[in-house]
Design brief:
The chain has 201 residues and is of the alpha/beta class. It has helices at 5-15, 22-34, 38-52, 72-75, 90-99, 126-134, 149-162, 187-195, and strands at residues 54-56, 63-65, 80-87, 104-108, 140-143, 168-171, 198-199. Bound molecules: zinc ion. Zinc ion is lined by residues 57, 59-60, 62, 70-71, 73-74.
Length: 201
């Protein structure tokens, strides 16, 4: 059966989202078709605002309000710029901020290396990280990518890239479930992993 174009294109759009297959995409599209007017309207507005009202910090690539060059963490003079916590995405920043146990700054890669998906070093924010480190203020880089295959591969790559920089490079300590996602780690586990970080040699 051929679907009318507006439904078909909504299904295609949903299918491009992570974790959504054709079945879920169809279910969501038909749900919205039947739903009261305000539900799709609210969704449409939120999607428009997402891109127009949010920017990325030019220093660390965390999220910030549109029009602002730097995020709250980079703007805060009380934060310690000598320690950088390198994470995959802004949600990880949120997780660390919730622990209340980290006073350094962040660097958001906005992705992880993944040869399978064709994501190489130039596709994520690795070059800006190396530039930040080369400016000399940073003394320790904590590689806080997920303990997954991509997270480990990215950490290893960064370790190699930072080898000549002279900065201390550490990786989050044990306690995080292997293959897990930092985003879902509870605050205590994350704090323990942060405090138990180990030198990467
Ligand atoms: Zn920032």
């Amino acid at each position: 059966m051929l679907l009318p174009e507006p439904i078909e294109s909504l299904i295609v759009a949903f299918e491009r989202l992570p974790g959504i297959g054709p079945k879920t995409a169809s279910r969501l599209a038909f749900f919205l078709l039947r739903a009261p007017e305000e539900i799709p309207a609210q969704l449409a507005e939120a999607l428009t605002d997402l891109k127009s009202k949010i920017d990325f910090c030019q220093e660390c690539f965390n999220i910030t309000a549109a029009g602002r060059d730097r995020c709250d963490v980079c703007d805060d003079p009380r934060r310690d710029g000598s320690v950088l916590c390198v994470v995959e995405d802004p949600l990880d920043v949120l997780s660390f901020e919730r622990t209340g146990g980290f006073n350094g700054r962040y660097h958001v890669l906005q992705g992880l290396l993944s040869p399978i998906e064709g994501i190489g070093p130039d596709d994520i924010n690795i070059r800006p990280l190396l530039e930040r480190v080369s400016r000399g203020e940073v003394r320790e880089v904590i590689l806080a990518t997920n303990p997954s295959m991509e997270g480990d591969a990215t950490a290893l790559y960064l370790r190699q890239q930072l080898r000549l920089s002279g900065v201390r490079v550490t990786r989050l300590g044990l306690g995080l479930p292997v293959g897990g996602d930092l985003e879902y780690a509870d605050q205590n586990t994350l704090l323990r992993a942060l405090l138990g970080r180990q030198e990467l040699s």
